[in-house]
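Our consortium's second objective concerns turning raw sequence data into structural hypotheses that experimental partners can test. To show how far this objective has progressed, the report includes one record in full. It was chosen at random from the queue rather than selected for favorable results. The single chain below, 126 residues long, was entered without modification.
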Amino acid sequence: QLQLVESGGGLVQPGGSLRLSCAASGVTLDLYIIGWFRQAPGKEREGVSCISSRGYSTDYASSVKGRFTISSDSAKNTVTLQMNSLKPEDTAVYYCAAKFGTWASNWRRAHEYDYWGQGTQVTVSS
């Protein structure tokens, strides 16, 4: 069974950068669409970015486009979210999630993902 573990969260000043990793075990990520989601207190979970199986396609929420970059490393069975120019409104718990398939235009639908990590806190504050 696929298991996901996020890492890389922390406290950073506005304008700073963080690199989140989603490490998978049990099954190769090449068979899955991987999404990054975030949830701030009192808000719904929102899709941040997605990468297709084998890394052929990516997509981003408009709020992070141009600042965040998603990538995958098949050899390490890991998906990474590089976050630059961070803003206070990026503060949230970030989760990676996986669903079987190659690509999905509706990747923002959190309920369609089968596997979730435990989340990692990202706090952007001066």
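The partners drew two points from this record. The longest strand covers residues 92-100. The mean pLDDT is 95. Both points have been shared with the crystallography group to help prioritize constructs.
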